[in-house]
Amino acid sequence: MPESTDVVVIGAGFAGLITARELTKTGKRVVVLEARDRIGGRTWTDNRLGRNLEMGGTWLHWTQPHSWAEVTRYGLDVTRGPRSEETYWLAGDKVRHGTLDDFMKLIDPGMTRLLEDTMKWIPRPYDPLKVKELEKVDQFNIQEMLDELDLSVEERNANEAAWVGHFNAPLKYAAFTAALRWTAAAAGSWHLMHEASAIFRLVDGTKTLANAIAQDSSADIRLNSPVQSIQHSPNEAVVTTEAGHEIRASRAVITVPQNVLHQLDITPALPEGKVRPSMEKTASRGLKAWIRVKGPIKPFFAYSSQHHPLSVVRTEYIGDDDAVLVAFGADSTRLDVNDSEAVALALKVWRDDLEVLETTGHDWMADPHSQETWLIQQPRHMTSYFAAQQQSTGALHFASADYANVWAGFIDGAIESGLRTARAIVDELS
What we know:
Layout: E1 3-10, H1 14-25, E2 30-33, E3 45-48, E4 51-54, H2 65-74, E5 78-80, E6 86-91, E7 94-98, H3 100-114, H4 118-121, H5 135-138, H6 142-147, H7 153-167, H8 176-185, H9 190-198, E8 200-202, H10 206-215, E9 220-222, E10 227-233, E11 236-241, E12 246-254, H11 258-261, E13 266-267, H12 272-280, E14 287-294, E15 300-303, E16 312-318, E17 322-329, H13 340-347, E18 356-361, H14 381-390, E19 396-398, H15 411-429
Parallel strand pairs: 1-2, 1-12, 2-9, 6-15, 10-13, 12-19
Antiparallel strand pairs: 3-4, 5-8, 6-7, 10-11, 11-12, 14-17, 14-18, 15-16, 16-17
Helix pairs in contact: 1-15, 2-15, 3-7, 12-14
C-alpha cells in the first residue's frame, strides 16, 4: 500500500534539511529521501589525512545572513586556517614570491576595473534580475571581460588564477554575471567578496550544522533511498523509490543539483526552462584536493593559472611535523586528486621543496548525485533560465543553493532557498 504524508523532500543537503525543519515546525508531516548514506549533500566532513576535512562546501561568513543565523541559532564555533606568511604566483613561466598583500595589490587594478559597475547591474542582490538590461552583460564570459582589460602577463595570470579559485571552472565557460553576483552580495567590494567566500569555516565541520538542523526537525529522514520516479498533478505528487516504495504527498520538494535535474523520471515532464539549463550544465567542473606534506613549513598561498592542474593552493592546517594544504583546479579531468605522485608534480609549478605524504579528495563531477561542484552559471543562463528554475510546477517545488538569489552556490544560498520554499508550501497548504 502506498504511504501518505504532507510533503516529500528529495535530498538531504542543506536546502532539503532546512525545508524539512521549517515544515515540521508548522506541524507538517515530512519524509526526506536521501540517496546517499549520509546527510549534507555537496557538503561532507570526513576524517582523512588525520583531520576532519571538508570534501565539498566549506566556508561561510557573517555577511551571509542565512548561514550566520543558523550558526548563531545552534551555538557553533567558527575559525579560519593559518594566515599565510608567504605567497607564490606566476608571471608567465617565472615564479614570483612575496606576501599575500603583494599579490592582492597585484590583482587590485584588474579586479577594480572588472567589477566597477557591479552595483549598476545588480543593485539589489536579493533581486538579481531587477535590472532588465542585465542580459547585455550576461552574454559574456569572464574570460572575455578580462581580455578587454589588456593586463600585463603577470596581472593576467594572477587575476585568472584568483577567479579559477572562486569559480572552479575554465573561465571561458563562466558567466561574467557570476562575478557580479558574488561581488554584489559583498556590497560591491571585491576584497570583502574574496574574504567571505574562502576564509572562515566551522571548527568541527559542516557536519555539525547539518546534524543540528536534522536533529531540530521531526522529519523522517531516510538514507540510502534513491528516487526512481515522480508523478505529479496540481495537488498531489507520487514519489516512488528505487526499492519500489510509493509515497503520496500534497507537495514534493526536489533539491537535487541543477546538472542532475533533467535525469529524473518526472511525469508530466518539467518545463523547458528547468530542463534546458540542466542539460546544458553549469560552468563549474573543477576539483578540490587535500594534500598532506612533510613539515614544518610556513603557511603559504600559491596561484598559477587556469591552464595548470592546480590553480590555487593554500595551507589550511599546520602540525608539528606536517601540514595539510587545500587546492583547487579548473578541470577535474586534468588531475586525479588521489594520485599523490601527480599532485606532487603539480605542486612543483611553484616549489620543489614540498614532500607530499598523501592526498585525498572527492570527484564531485563523477558523483552521480551531484555531477557539479558549486554553482557557477554559464553565459545567458541567468537571464534566460533563472526565474523559471525557481518557480514551482504544480505540486512540485524546487530548493537548492543553485537557485538562491544572493549567495548562490554557497551553504547560505541553500538555506535561503529552503526557507523560501518551505514558506511557499505553508502558504499553499493553508
